[in-house]
Design a protein that fits this description.
The protein is an alpha/beta fold. 42% of the residues lie in helices and 17% in strands. The longest helix has 32 residues.
Length: 645
């Protein structure tokens, strides 16, 4: 550490002398000012060490002409010829860097550059003191400067009290100018001009102009801050802070871990998305609204979700359709046994689609009891057309907004089921199945069946407007298939928009073939067996359909077959190696006694008994109607409700 005991009167410098030079970058030192310096470059460190080795501890500080030139790289041509002689008052080393406290003494002028290595050294000459001219102009400049200082201090409440006192108590105009130049960032060129000024009036003129410019900037900044503070609420302040944080992250190279801001990502997706013109205009308008909002604002997330829905909807994206009627027939035969009339009507509808691709897709309604294959027929049609398939369950739906969507003004608003389904399939020409259309309800929230009228109307659904999206979407390319168990609950206007195809129940022969070709192989695989492990005879299947199930479809029959397969799987898991062949005689041992006992017509009927027939969705039945003679007088006896037998 350098000698710190000499803190008394500063030694005077000779008029012409040799002295080490310390180049300064972006810094200008002035006489009678005390400033800290940090010196770490090798050549500058050698210059300071040379100065400390002398008794006076003097060193010449000169500013570089260009901010891009460092101290070690500076040549005489890169340095100004006028600088300041300073006295090193204190020196401390910290991690190889010299921390100096220096005090300016006099201005000097370089007369000759002596050496550049191992450090810069010059022959210098002290410049004469500032020319002092007492006059009204000097006093006016001084008072103006002091007035501007007071205005500046009023705008800077955090200035330490000692600096306020030092500024206001300075009577010497030259020293006042040097002090202001040392505490304000006026720029290297302005500060150098002030240092080179040889008269007090010239120095004050430069100080006055620089201080006036700084005061104007401070006043403008204060006005902007005051206005912004009065107008900004908490969310706006959060937005400004986040923008500043993003700028800081970008300068640090972090830039949100490499990801762009949400708004920028959405903007890039909008630019490449294939959107109709009206959709693009509305999306751009909403994006501008989102960019103006802070991320914490509730509307920000509402708009972002809305824009994401718009970008993910298939406005113009269609799946490539390869309709081959022979292949369609093959697909229908693979997936369903029988139903020849139904398949023929489906192929007729597909033939129209093939001959007129620009025609409106037909709207088919499959009506039939549960388990006859209505939903699976819809999947087969989609596979035959090569289109995406999605199913929308309408059973128990009572709110019209489930189909049309909720308006965005509501919390938790979402699009309707139709738009959500199109978003899932990501094409605008899928096969959409409206399941259980006969079980739509209605209450005070609206009538979903009436909402379906627009969706299924070919003349209207090309401009379907969901309440959430609030933009026209073309549904004319969608192939709608509806299913119902009964036709009567469907409103007549809705029924009139669909082509009705009735699916009756299967006969015992059809159930036998369906079980052999589809149900038994599927249940064998699902229960971990193979065809070499389990075989069910035709007689056993016939017994299952007639005595253990009573249905129009085959759903319960498949469950019963699955029950048999699980019982066999248990035996195999316990170590059975033999193939299990189940016959009709063995069914009772697996499933217990029969559950259905069909009535049989009698050849001879007792008195008071007549044979009748009943029709149900599961087939016909024989009924015996009995008449009983009861004694009694005149009167009416109600024995039950009409229609119940």
């Amino acid at each position: 550490m350098a000698d710190e005991s000499k803190t008394t009167e500063t030694p005077a410098a000779p008029k012409s002398f040799e002295i080490a030079v310390l180049p300064l970058q972006n810094t200008t030192l002035f006489p009678e000012t005390v400033v800290p310096l940090a010196v770490g470059r090798e050549r500058s460190t050698r210059a300071v060490e040379a100065a400390l080795a002398t008794e006076e501890k003097l060193i010449a500080c000169v500013t570089t002409k260009s901010d891009n030139v460092t101290g070690d790289d500076a040549t005489p041509a890169d340095l100004y010829s006028i600088g300041t002689i300073v006295n090193i008052k204190r020196m401390m080393k910290n991690d190889g860097v010299m921390q100096l406290i220096v005090q300016g003494i006099d201005r000097f002028e370089v007369k000759e550059w002596i050496t550049e290595q191992p450090y810069l050294k010059v022959r210098a000459e002290i410049l004469p003191p500032l020319g002092r001219v007492d006059g009204e102009e000097i006093e006016a400049l001084k008072r103006n400067i002091q007035g501007m200082i007071q205005q500046a201090l009023a705008l800077l409440p955090n200035v330490p009290p000692e600096i306020r006192m030092a500024v206001m108590s300075q009577n010497d105009p030259g020293q006042l100018a040097y002090f202001l130049a040392s505490v304000l960032d006026l720029g290297s060129e302005t500060e150098q001009k002030m240092l080179e000024s040889g008269t007090v009036d010239g120095l004050l003129t430069l100080t006055h102009a620089a201080l006036a410019r700084e005061l104007e900037i401070m006043q403008i900044r204060s006005k902007i801050a005051s206005e912004a503070q009065g107008e900004m609420d908490k969310s706006q302040r959060d937005y400004v802070l986040r923008q500043q944080m993003k700028a800081i992250q970008k300068e640090l190279g972090e830039d949100e871990t490499g990801e762009k801001a949400e708004a920028e990502q959405i903007r890039e997706r909008l630019e490449v998305a294939d959107l109709p013109d009206d959709v693009r205009r509305e999306s751009t308008r909403e994006l501008k609204r989102m960019e103006a909002l802070p991320q914490a604002a509730p509307d920000y997330h509402v708009i972002r979700t809305y824009l994401e829905y718009i970008l993910e909807l298939p406005w113009r994206k269609s799946s490539e359709e390869k309709l081959d009627l022979n292949e369609a027939r093959k697909v229908l035969d693979e997936d369903h046994y029988g139903l020849e009339d139904i398949k023929e009507r489906i192929l007729e509808s597909l033939a129209v689609v093939k001959l007129r691709p620009d025609s409106k897709s037909p709207i088919i309604l499959f009506v039939g009891p549960p388990g006859v294959g209505k939903t699976s027929l819809g999947r087969s049609i989609a596979r035959a057309l090569g289109r995406e398939f999605d199913r929308i369950s309408l059973g128990g739906m009572r709110d019209e907004a489930e189909l049309r969507g909720h308006r965005r003004t509501y919390v938790g608003a979402m699009p309707g089921r139709i738009i959500q389904s199109l978003r899932r399939v990501a094409v605008n020409n899928p096969v959409l199945m409206l399941d259980e259309v006969d079980k739509l309800g209605n209450d005070f929230r609206g009538d979903p069946a009436s909402a379906l009228l627009e969706i299924l109307a070919p003349a209207q659904n090309n401009t379907f407007r969901d309440n959430y999206i609030d933009l026209p979407f073309d549904l004319s390319k969608v192939f709608f298939i509806a299913t119902a168990n009964q036709l009567q609950p469907i409103p007549m206007p809705l029924r009139d928009r669909m082509e009705i195809i009735q699916l009756a129940g299967y006969s015992d022969r059809e159930k036998l073939n369906i079980a052999k070709q589809y149900l038994v192989p599927r249940q064998i695989i699902e229960n971990g067996l193979t065809a070499e492990r389990l075989e069910i005879s035709d007689d056993a299947i016939n017994l299952l359909t007639s005595r253990y199930t009573r249905e129009a479809g085959v759903r319960q029959l498949e469950r019963t077959v699955g029950n048999l397969a699980r019982k066999v799987a248990l035996k195999v898991a316990q170590g059975l190696d033999e193939k299990v062949s189940i016959t009709a005689d063995e069914i009772k041992g697996y499933l217990g006694p029969p559950k259905v006992y069909p009535e049989e017509a009698r050849t001879e009927l007792p008195a008071g008994v007549a044979t009748g027939m009943a029709w149900t969705e599961m087939g016909g039945e024989v009924l015996f109607i009995e008449a009983t003679l009861l004694p009694g007088g005149r009167g009416l006896t109600i024995t039950g409700q009409l229609g119940e037998v």
